Amino acid sequence: MGPNPTLLIVDDDAPFLRRLARAMESRGFTVDLAGSVAEGIAKAKEAPPSYAVVDLRLGDGTGLDVIEAIRERRSDTRIIVLTGYGNIATAVTAVKLGALDYLAKPADADDIYLALTQRPGEKAEIPENPMSADRVRWEHIQRVYESCERNVSETARRLNMHRRTLQRILAKRAPK
């Protein structure tokens, strides 16, 4: 990390935002938080950070707008894009706009820290024990369930699944 370890985290998932902020502060960053695209753009224009972690999908738009706002003010910011809805097209767009890396949620603080601080040209290590497909599915369902304020019917609608099927999944333990 450089002499100015300012980090802007933009995510509309408040519990995740707080957890990640605490984790990054413990690693030496000076953290600023934003819960929306508008707030992220305002903070990026007010004080462009050295580092940024931006969620791709936010309640009021796309994190790509925040990346553009940061790049207008500062070209050397190391930006990481997080998303639970990853696809190749958005990854390519994020990188073209200046993102350093693109991580799929659920990414933990260690993964984010490594992505932010890796040297140019350095390749990330392949995890020894990657999450199983069942675990990734379960994590996604949990994230949507929490974003729906633990409303089973709304979660089932968003996931395009039957409510009873969702209830059975939620009643089980997390897969390994």
UniProtKB/TrEMBL annotation:
Q: Which residues carry this modification: 4-aspartylphosphate?
A: D55
**Do you know which InterPro entries this protein is assigned to?**
ActR_PrrA_rreg, CheY-like_superfamily, HTH_Fis, Sig_transdc_resp-reg_receiver, WalR-like
Superkingdom per UniProt: Bacteria
Q: Per the UniProt entry, what is one GO biological process?
A: regulation of DNA-templated transcription
Q: Which SUPFAM superfamilies match?
A: CheY-like
Question: Which GO molecular-function terms appear in the entry?
Answer: phosphorelay response regulator activity; transcription cis-regulatory region binding
> Which of UniProt's keywords are assigned here?
DNA-binding, Phosphoprotein, Transcription, Transcription regulation, Two-component regulatory system
Q: Does the keyword Magnesium apply?
A: no
Question: Where does the Response regulatory domain start and stop, copy by copy?
Answer: 6-120
A single GO cellular-component term on record: protein-DNA complex
The cross-references to PANTHER family, in alphabetical order and at most eight, read:
REGULATOR OF RPOS (PTHR48111), TWO-COMPONENT RESPONSE REGULATOR ORR33 (PTHR48111:SF1)
The protein depicted here goes by the name ActR/PrrA/RegA family redox response regulator transcription factor
Task: Please give the organism.
Answer: Rhizobium glycinendophyticum
Taxonomic lineage per UniProt? Bacteria, Pseudomonadati, Pseudomonadota, Alphaproteobacteria, Hyphomicrobiales
